[in-house]
Design a protein that fits this description.
Structural class: mainly beta
Number of helices: 1
Radius of gyration: 25 Å
Strand content: over 45%
Shape: elongated
Helix content: under 10%
C-alpha cells in the first residue's frame, strides 16, 4: 500500500478519534433548541436524502511479474512488465443514501454506490529480441523460452455496494450504527502477444483472467459531527468495518492461432473470510434549512479478494498438459477519492 494511502487512512482515523472525544460535549449554543447528529439544524425531519458523485482512484495492483526482456544471447533479461504497472485513472459513479428517521433520534439508512471502469492498458515497445513469458513458469505455469515480438495488456475493475444500517438514537455529536452490507468487486486482466518464429508463420496468443467477488456480512461503525453542530457549515466523519464472507470465483482462458488454433479454459470458485472498511470526512454547507451542499473524501479498503493478477500463478492452461485451476483470494485493494453532492431534509 502506497504512502499516499497510509497518510489518508491516518488522517481520517485521527479525525474520527477527535470526534469521539467531542461526543460528550454539550449541545452547540448556535442551535437554540436541541441539535443532534441526524438532525443538525433541529428540524425533526421524517426523511433525509443524499446523492453524491464519487470520483475515485484505486491503488496499483499487487506485484505479479508477467514478461521479461530477452538478452542478446537469448538469456532472460530484466523485468519488462509487471501487473503493478497497470495503474488506472479516475473512475466515477453515483452514491445514494436515504434515511427514515424513527422518532427516537435514530434512523434506518439505505445506501447504494456503484463505480465502474477503473481501466488501464500497457503496450511494450517493439523489440527485435522480443520478450519472454516470465521465468520460471511463464503465464499459467507453462515453461516457455519462445520470444514474443509484440506484447500488450489491459486491466479493468469495478466496485458496487448496497447496505442497510440501523442508526442508533443519539442526542449528541456521535452516533453508532450496525447493519448488513453487500460489496461486489470485479477484476480482469488480459494480455495479447504476437510471436514471429524464424521460418514459420507468425501466431498470436491471448491470455485472459476474470475474477468476481461477492462479499456479504455485518458491519459496525460510528458517525459524527466533528465541527459546527447547528451551524450553517459543519464537518462530518464516518467509519465502518466488518468481517464478511466472500463468494469468490475466477475464469481463465488461453487461446492461440498457432496451427489449427486452440482455446483452453478453467473456472473455479471458493469461499473465505474477507474484510471491508470505510472511512470518510465530509464538509456540509446549508444553502437553506432543507438543502445542503456536500464535499468530502472517502477511503474503501477491501481484503481477502480474488484479484485477476494473482490467478496467473495458480492456474495451468498449457497445451499437452493437464488443465489445473484454483482461486487465489489473498488480494487486497484500496480505493479512495472525492465525493460531491446534495442533501435534502423533509
Amino acid at each position: 500500500m502506497g504512502a499516499r494511502v497510509w497518510r489518508g487512512l491516518v488522517l481520517a482515523a485521527a479525525v474520527l478519534a477527535a470526534a469521539c472525544g467531542a461526543a460528550g460535549q454539550a449541545a452547540d449554543p448556535f442551535c437554540g433548541v436541541p441539535c443532534r447528529l441526524l438532525d443538525p439544524l433541529a428540524q425533526d425531519p421524517l426523511w433525509t436524502g443524499r446523492t453524491d458523485a464519487l470520483l475515485l482512484w484505486r491503488d496499483a495492483p499487487q506485484s505479479q511479474p508477467l514478461f521479461n526482456f530477452v538478452e542478446g544471447d537469448g538469456g532472460i533479461g530484466p523485468l519488462a512488465l509487471d501487473a503493478s504497472d497497470f495503474q488506472s485513472g479516475m473512475a466515477a459513479g453515483p452514491r445514494f443514501a436515504l434515511f427514515r428517521h424513527t422518532g427516537d433520534m435514530g434512523a434506518v439508512e439505505f445506501n447504494y454506490l456503484r463505480v465502474q471502469s477503473f481501466t488501464s492498458s500497457r503496450t511494450l515497445p517493439g523489440s527485435d529480441l522480443g520478450y519472454y513469458d516470465t521465468y520460471p513458469h511463464g503465464l499459467y505455469c507453462c515453461d516457455t523460452f519462445i520470444p514474443r515480438s509484440d506484447v500488450s495488456g489491459s486491466m479493468g475493475s469495478s466496485l458496487q455496494s448496497a447496505e442497510v444500517n440501523r442508526r442508533f438514537p443519539t442526542d449528541g455529536r456521535l452516533g453508532w450504527l450496525m447493519g448488513f452490507r453487500w460489496v461486489e468487486w470485479n477484476d480482469s486482466l488480459g494480455l495479447e502477444t504476437v510471436t514471429v518464429p524464424e521460418g514459420f508463420p507468425s501466431f498470436a496468443n491471448s491470455y485472459l483472467t476474470r475474477t468476481s467477488n461477492d462479499l456479504y456480512g455485518m458491519q459496525v461503525g460510528a458517525d459524527s459531527i466533528l465541527y459546527g453542530l447547528g451551524r450553517p457549515f459543519r464537518v462530518e466523519g464516518i467509519g465502518k468495518a466488518g468481517i464478511f464472507y466472500n463468494d469468490a470465483s475466477q475464469a481463465s482462458r488461453f487461446s492461440t492461432t498457432a496451427g489449427a488454433g486452440e482455446t483452453l479454459a478453467v473456472a473455479t470458485s471458493t469461499g473465505r473470510a474477507a474484510f471491508v472498511g470505510e472511512l470518510g470526512v465530509t464538509g456540509v454547507y446549508d444553502v437553506t434549512r432543507w438543502l445542503s451542499l456536500r464535499a468530502g473524501y472517502a477511503i474503501f479498503w477491501l481484503g481477502g479478494l480474488a484479484l485477476a493478477p494473482e490467478q496467473y500463478g495458480v492456474n495451468q492452461l498449457c497445451q499437452e498438459d493437464p488443465i489445473r485451476g484454483a482461486t487465489d483470494t489473498a488480494g487486497s485493494v484500496v480505493v479512495q477519492g472525492l465525493s460531491l453532492g446534495l442533501e435534502a431534509r423533509w
